[in-house]
Specification:
Blueprint: H1 3-17, E1 20-21, E2 26-27, E3 34-41, E4 47-55, H2 61-75, E5 80-89, H3 101-106, H4 108-111, E6 116-119, H5 124-130, E7 152-159, H6 167-180, E8 185-189, H7 197-200, E9 219-221, E10 224-228, H8 229-232, H9 243-255, E11 262-268, H10 275-283, E12 288-293, H11 297-312, E13 317-328, E14 335-336, H12 343-350, E15 355-361, H13 363-371, H14 381-396, H15 398-401
Parallel strand pairs: 4-5, 7-11, 7-12, 8-10, 8-11, 12-13, 13-15
Antiparallel strand pairs: 1-2, 3-4, 5-6, 9-10, 13-14
The structure holds adenosine-5'-triphosphate.
Keywords: ATP-binding, Hydrolase, Iron, Iron-sulfur, Metal-binding, Nucleotide-binding
Family: Belongs to the Mrp/NBP35 ATP-binding proteins family.
Pfam family, one: FeS_assembly_P
């Protein structure tokens, strides 16, 4: 961030802190209600601001009013082009309350369109009265926390019980392989602690626009619709995300993004099997999960915990992928099993969970991930490996769902 930007950031924070939260009698920043602050330079040269506004107890006129005040105050600052405020609640109750239709319209930012971008010149009052009722709004038939995402056929969590095993790499390349097989694919990167999707897809400098219905439009790259917490908030900034806030933010990214129409939405989840992951597995409308692991014993103990977690939440596990299975010397072609051999396969057998396949350590996988062009885009052995995995996954979707998998169109 340049000096000018850090000056502007401070100005915005100062302005936000002048808005007093009635519960704490302190400003929004002093009350720690503002998190994940981000500042990007827009096309006009003016700044685009994004932040998370934490509210207590779910939708309420107070939450709406604080949000409107915050948006207006920020837009009134010189040099600001747009502001996106994501409201999150650390109460478990908000989605369970069935608001009246009138109230739904007023509270649409929380019930459906929590993330919306305000532009300079917007009339706050007029916008509010015209705010759309959420598409597919609060459903009476399904529990709200499992509400299916309209237009998304299958939602697959890619999980790892341990960080750094290549979960995001596998997610990105699998998504591309599925798209190459003719499917419409999206990725939701929910790893609030280190979102890597923007880097892996070369979209780090982009931020999503808001559609007419109030939903955020995913950023399309390499034929994949992508959304990441990294587009909306500065996750590099030191801040403490409380578990329920994370879950609430993730839930909004699922429901408040214009995903339709997708055959598969892959969800890159934060590593681990703690409260956040459990809550996600319980509340997200997941079709199934895939677990990524490296072969060593210490990682495999975590895999068992991961599989158990999904079983507990009645989410079918499509299988386990072993990443970094070996390294092949480019000259001699000798394989070194750096992290041990066949561990994930044996664990899959012991847990009676399908073993989907293994991926070697390949320099180009890391390099292309860092360069924003996942390795599966390029013809060769890496692309072939991911295609095999994708074919297995598409085929195996049939079993847990008890219905036909998405149609594959070969060109
Ligand atoms: N098969 C592979 N060959 C070479 N490098 C790989 C491979 N898989 C992953 N990597 C590299 O390992 C690093 C970690 O991968 P990645 O970010 O995908 O892991 P992760 O499990 O998503 O991590 P975290 O959980 O911490 O977000 C990255 O630099 C990535 O490029």
């Amino acid at each position: 961030m340049t000096n000018t930007n850090s000056g502007l950031k401070q100005t915005v924070l100062d302005v936000l802190d002048k808005i007093i939260h009635p519960d704490t009698a302190k400003g929004l920043v002093s009350s720690q209600k503002v998190q994940g602050f981000s500042l990007q330079t827009g096309e006009s040269g003016d700044a685009k601001i994004g932040f998370i506004l934490e509210i207590d107890g779910g939708p309420s006129p107070l939450a709406d009013s604080l949000k409107q005040k915050a948006e207006k105050a920020v837009l009134d600052i010189d040099g600001i082009e747009a502001v996106t405020v994501i409201m999150t609640s650390h109460s478990d109750r908000p989605q369970a309350r069935a608001p009246s239709p009138e109230k739904t319209a007023q509270n649409a930012p929380l019930a459906s369109g929590a993330s919306r971008r305000m532009q300079k010149g917007d009339n706050v009052a007029a916008q509010d009265s015209k705010r759309p009722v959420p598409a597919g709004g609060p459903s009476k038939a399904a529990p709200p926390e499992r509400a299916k995402i309209p237009g998304v056929n299958a939602m697959i969590a890619i999980a790892s019980a341990k960080g750094g095993v290549g979960k995001s790499t596998v997610t990105s390349n699998l998504a591309i392989a599925c798209a190459q097989l003719g499917l419409k694919v999206g990725i939701l990167d929910t790893d609030v602690y280190g979102p890597s999707l923007p880097t892996m897809f070369g979209t780090a400098k982009t931020s999503p626009e808001q559609g007419k219905d109030g939903k955020l439009i995913p950023i399309e790259a390499h034929g994949i619709k992508t959304m990441s917490i990294g587009y909306l908030a500065d996750t590099d900034a030191p801040m403490i995300w409380r578990g329920p806030v994370v879950v609430s933010a993730i839930n909004q990214m699922m429901q408040d993004v214009a995903w339709a129409d997708l055959d598969i939405l892959f969800v890159d989840t934060p590593p681990g099997t703690g409260d956040i992951q459990l809550s996600l597995a319980q509340r997200a409308p997941l079709t199934a999960a895939i677990i990524v692991s490296t072969p060593q014993e210490v990682a495999l103990a975590d895999v068992r915990r991961g599989v158990a977690m999904f079983h507990k939440t009645h989410t079918p596990v499509l299988g386990i992928i072993e990443n970094m299975a070996w390294f092949e010397d480019p000259v001699s072609k000798n394989r070194s099993y750096i992290f041990g051999e066949g561990g994930a396969r044996r664990t899959a057998e012991a847990l009676e969970t399908p073993f989907l396949g293994e991926l070697p350590i390949v320099q180009s996988i890391r390099e292309s991930g860092d360069a924003g062009t996942p390795a599966a885009l390029k013809a060769g052995p890496v692309q072939d490996s991911f295609r095999l995995l994708a074919e297995k996954i598409i085929a195996s979707l049939e079993a847990p769902l008890g219905k036909a998998p998405p149609q594959i169109i070969f060109e």
